[in-house]
Structures are given as structure tokens and as C-alpha cells.
Amino acid sequence: MNYLHRIATRWHDLFRKRRLSMLNATDNSEEWHVHLSPASLFAGAVAFALLLFILVLSLMAYTPVLEFLPGYRTAADRSRENLVQNIIRLDSMERMMNDMMTYNENIAQIMEGRTPVVRTISNADSTRTGKVLVVPSAEDSLLRAQMEGDGPYALAGRSGSRRQVREAIELVTPAEGIITERFDIGESRFGVRIAAAPGDRITAIDNGTVLQSLWTPENGYIILLQHAGSLVSVYKNLSRSLVTTGQAVRSGEQIGYNTETDSESEEPKLFEFELWNNGKPVDPEGYIVF
Questions:
Q1: Distant-in-sequence, close-in-space partners of 208: CB < 8 Å, separation ≥ 6
Q2: Distance from CA of residue 90 to its chain's centroid?
Q3: Is the residue at 171 inside a domain?
Q4: I need a labelling partner for 255 at 20 to 30 A (CA). Which of 60, 91, 246, 267 fits?
Q5: How does pLDDT run across 45-96, given as a tens digit for each residue?
């Protein structure tokens, strides 16, 4: 009971007002006074601290006062520079990815014989891209004219380009004669037909090994030679074969005879020669000067 009474007394003392007065030092007369309690003093201190905190927070948030603090400007500049560098790196990575995608698309377009495209970035969304035709420059037009014409750099040229390739890989003409039908994949012609003298000698275009040597009713004797670099040569419509499967032959060595003239046939068979590289047919005139 006494314990509760003491607690109640201290609680009342906390809110009991005291008189704070100011006296004149000469005659001890009261000049100013105020009534305060311990609770009011505590509330005033808390209010003052809260007001000071709000004021400091406002100054830091809405004024450049922090720029004048020693050391803060350096840290802020460092953070700003790091942010700018990261943005630049992201932009550079995005440009590199776009350039790589454009490069791959252009290579695919060129391999298919179509006009290359350039990738443009939209201002609204950097992830959306569009395709715009590349306007050929004067140098590009000149290069196209050289490659598509009859000059030494022409892709479709026959004498110059084939001669340079022949000098590089030294392939021998399989038969002496005139080409009557040229290579055309669209027409399912995977080689050339040569009008050679009946019974003329057929020679190997390069060193190699005989893959097959067989006879068929449609094409007579057929010989397949395997050469270096995944190159395979095919000789059709032979009247006789001089090699066997697995035999090694040298460049220019005779491997058979051209088909003989058949008086009973309305269309005599011509010697056919095919050249395959990595399992795909290629134009023999691009490798051999006939």
C-alpha cells in the first residue's frame, strides 16, 4: 500500500507546476516568472529535438548544403562517375550486340545473293530494330562491276579465274574436246559433257585413289577418284576402264577410254565429268581449263 502511495505521489509531482522567476539583483524584486512542470520540460525538449531533426532533413534534401561538407563532394562525384561509366558500358554492349547481329544477317544475305541490310535503332525503344536497304557506294558499284564483268577478278569469268585456280592446284584436263553442256544445278547437271574423239584416252585430273570402277547399262563404265582436300572426280560414259577399286593413280595417268560411236543410237553418249567438293557438286570449269 505504501509502495502504491509513493508511485502516485511521484506521478503527481511530475505534473506539479513550479514557479520559475527572475529577480532584480538590486532590490530582489521579481521581474519575470513562469510556471513549469517536469513533464512540460520533457515535452518541450522532445518537440525541440523533433523540430531540429525536420529542419536538418529539409536542408539536406532540398538545398545544396551537403556540397559544402568536406569529403561528401568527392564521394558524390565518385558515385556519379560510376553511374555514368555503367551506363556507357551498357550502351556499348548493346551496340556491339546489334553490330554482331547485323554482321551475321549481312553475311547470310550475301551468301544467298541478296542485298545486305543495316540495322537501325528506334528512339522510342532500343530493343526494336528495323531493316533499311544499304545504298551502294561508288566503290561498291565499281567492285560489283569488276566481280560481275569479264575482268581478271570476275566471278563468272572463265579463262582468268580458272587459270589462276588451275595454277594453284594443278588439275589436269580429263579429256581433250569441246564442252557441249555446262554445269547447271537447276537443270540437274552436276558436271559437264565433253565431245571428245571416240575411244580417246581419259586421264586422272590429280593424284588420288579409285573409289569405284564399275559398269552400268545407262552410263557405261564409271570411275570415281578420291583426291586430297575432300575432292572427288567422276568419269562417266567410258567404253573401257583401266583401273580397279583401291588402286592409286597419278595426275595425268590414263584411267580409261572414251565411249565409242554407236551408229545405231540416234544420240551418241558423250563423256561426262563431274567434280564434287566436300560432298557438294562444283563447276569443273572453275577448277580446270578445258
A1: 225, 226, 227, 228, 233, 248, 249
A2: 18
A3: yes
A4: 267
A5: 999 999 999 998 888 788 877 767 766 666 667 777 888 888 888 888 888 8
**Residue 115 and residue 109 in contact, taking contact as beta carbons nearer than 8 Å:** yes
Whether residue 52 is contained in a domain is answered as no
Contact 271, 202 (CB under 8 A): yes
Residue whose grid cell is 506521478: 11
* Percentage, residues of the chain above pLDDT 90: 18
Long-range Cβ pairs for the range 74-78 (8 Å, 24+): none
- Whether residue 15 is contained in a domain is answered as no
Percent helix / strand / coil, the chain, rounded to 5 = 40, 30, 30
Nearest residue to 200 via CA among 180, 177, 219, 178: 177
C-alpha span between 146 and 285 (Å, rounded):
20
Between CA 169 and CA 163 the distance in angstroms is 10
Contacts 24+ apart (CB under 8 A), 38-47: 38/13, 38/14, 39/14, 39/15
Does residue 241 lie in a domain region?
yes
Number of domains in the chain: 1
What does the alpha-carbon distance between residue 11 and residue 14 come to, in Å, rounded to a whole number?
5
